[in-house]
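Note to self: the last two entries modelled the partners one at a time, which told us nothing about the interface. This time every component goes in together.
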Amino acid sequence: SAVISQKPSRDICQRGTSLTIQCQVDSQVTMMFWYRQQPGQSLTLIATANQGSEATYESGFVIDKFPISRPNLTFSTLTVSNLSPEDSSIYLCSVTGIGGYTFGSGTRLTVV
Amino acid sequence: DQQVKQNSPSLSVQEGRISILNCDYTNSMFDYFLWYKKYPAEGPTFLISISSIKDKNEDGRFTVFLNKSAKHLSLHIVPSQPGDSAVYFCAASENRGNTPLVFGKGTRLSVIA
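The predicted structure of the combined assembly is written out below.
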């Protein structure tokens, strides 16, 4: 299965700023997903990012708040914009391929 | 509307005994089910999966049972070990490998020595 390098692993950010999370995959994958896990909650899908097209956002998530870049088949970024304490969560990227679903190690964001 | 439900937020089991984690789903289009284990500072780790064409899949100490008519699956861990203590997530997809996973809220398993 694919191996994903996700950065940063954690960050503490000020309100009103933005954080960009990167995921690098060791093989070419068509579909990449971004999830959020709020404290004590499940993993909730933010968007699906396919190379060469606009990301598809789930209900409750908008591009202005969570812009996604997918410049090629091995890399994607998720930006969480205009941060507020409610954005404090773990953010994870995931890919699917021949080996099944694989997840990055997650980014723990704390907004102060 | 929660499509995947894990109604037990926590479970405590003695070492050596069986752990049974339950999961219910509402979407009849789901055809692939997975269980993940997650520690706080890590991404989910895949444990075991089952396709809707099967009713049981076994891998070492882990067995997953699927009851399609009841839209219910369970994960059995035998024997339970202290290292199994973690949060377990049930997940499902409609088209294996081609759609994002839908997760339950997780069950925190504590295995007591």
